[in-house]
Amino acid sequence: MKPLIFRLFPAVIASLLLAFPLLAQQDNIDAFFRDFTAEWIRHDPDLAARTRYFSGEEQDRFERELTPLTLAWKRERIQLARKGLAELQKFKGAHLGEPQRLSAAVMRWQLEMVVREEAYLDYRFPLEQFQGANVNLVDTLVVVHPLRTERDAENYVARLSQVNARMQEAMAESERLAKKGIIPPRFILDATITQMQKFIGVPPAQNPLVATFAQKIAAINGIPQTKIEDLRGQAEKIVNDQVYPVWKQAIALLQSQSGRASDDAGLWRLKGGSAAYAYDLRRYTTTNLTADQIHETGLRQVARIESEMDDLLRRLGRTEGSVEQRIEKLSAEQEYPNPTSEESRALIMRDVEGILRDAEKRAGALFDKRPMAPVIAQPYPRFLETNAAATYTSPAPDGSRPGIFQFPRRPEQMTKLSSDGGLRSLVYHETVPGHHFQIGYELEDKDLPRFRRIRAFGGISALTEGWALYAEHLAAESGWYSDDLVGLLGELGSELFRARRLVVDTGIHAKHWTRQQAIDYGIEPSEVERYVVFPGQACSYMLGELKILELRQKAQKVLGDKFSLPEFHNLVFEAGTVPLDLLEQQMDAYIRSASGKP
């Protein structure tokens, strides 16, 4: 009889032969992910600089450029997405491992969204107070551009010199759309004009493009003082000679459009607006829910949360008036003294820092995994405070920038309890265990292909914002507010705010609501204006949270004592940023495996 090794040899060979095609196809799609992502990023200098995707001279070149803001560039982007989809189609039916199948599905979904947007490019405002060129160009340089070396500083000045050209492109787009009768509502134009006037209302040396740059380069070791002064002087001259003049031109353009604009707020006012809104809802929520369905979900959630808030207010001895009236009165009592004073403005940032560091300690009981990158909090520049919402910017992949939470210190936000939530819940949402935990972990997860770690094809709002709202809820149910009923009320207020968003966003864009109707429903003006500029995005938060809670409840019901909350969080993190249906597929597979059921 032959030895066992020889008897098994044919079977071993057969299994290896079967494995070779699988391994080869996995290698092929990994190579496609790598090569197509590189091609995508080469087409977008801002993305290349933000992610520091390349190295050497190639990376240096991108860090001296700003991405074009032309219609031609957008169309080239769409053609590139079509190319990517065609290449992905070649892997349909291939023998791929589960990680590659999931990543291919995510890329397909994202590229399809890029392609489908082609029909709706005219529904975006090139100049507006949230993410228009007038804001993003500044943010790209002041917040995102890396400044760790002398060469980084030189590249900053080179990019700054391109701001005029990029603004000219945005203005050309605004004029093109105006000729087609597509003009932002008058109140969006007015807010944008006011913001832009503030931006140029200080001497160039005090403008964030110069002042922040000067502060950062002064902290870089090894740059001679004469070089620092030379670079700062170049930046100031560019701002004075190029940036301020083009801002004045853009202001004049928007002022000329204001006379032709109306106060109608929703997409319904534009030809094809209903189809554009349906696309936006699909893009942001990743569901096929209609505007009517989302509106009704919002109404149900508002009723539920207001009832819970009423109970909590009564526990606090607040029984007179509506929920909104009682919250308004309590919020006034929670204001920082003299909210425009420098003392209070500094105090609230110290409190934010304290909340953030406390959250990092508390999160240990709920999470096995967290990002290694740190997160910091900083205020918005003054010229953005009036319109800005709190935001999170992810760390740089190379460690050159931490995660950054930016907070707008306008008077109505200078309180521990506002109409749209509490200060604690806001910090939890944007940092720990919210955006920073989920986005920061994804960035460092080496099991994901690089395009997913750096979100090369964009984020998926339903998962990202859904997780952040879930994180707020998690903090509340985990006893983080056990000695802070006002803070707990703020968490419920944040939930209520997101529920009202479902009603207001669909109301504005599908039900002909006016700006004032939305404000009367309990949403502050700057937030209403945000929904006008970004149709559908506000619906992603609560719909995403509801899905995550639904999946958690399903896992708890099936697994019983086998259920682990930290393990559930691990699974959400390890799935990465995915559409909600793909998250559900991943969770269902986990439940089957953990329960031992087929």
Strand order of the largest sheet: 1-3-2
Major sheet size, sense and barrel closure: 3 strands, mixed
Q: Strand portion, in percent? A: under 5%
How many structural domains does the protein architecture include? 2
Distance between the termini: 40 Å
Q: Regions with pLDDT < 50 over 5+ consecutive residues?
A: 16-20
Count of DSSP-assigned helices: 26
Shape: globular
Mean pLDDT: 94
How many strands appear in the DSSP assignment? 5
Please state the CA-atom Rg, rounded to the nearest Å. Answer: 25 Å
**Helical content, roughly?**
55-70%
The secondary-structure class comes to: mainly alpha
Explain what this protein looks like in three dimensions.
The chain is an all-alpha fold. It has 2 domains: 34-274, no CATH class; 275-595, no CATH class. The protein has helices spanning 4-42, 45-51, 56-62, 71-89, 98-116, 133-144, 150-160, 163-179, 186-199, 208-218, 225-258, 273-285, 291-315, 323-333, 342-362, 382-385, 423-430, 435-444, 450-453, 461-477, 485-510, 515-520, 525-533, 540-559, 565-575, 580-595; strands spanning 375-379, 391-393, 403-407, 417-418, 421-422. The strands form 2 sheets. It has a 3-stranded mixed beta sheet, covered by helices on one side. Helix 7 (150-160) packs parallel to helix 11.
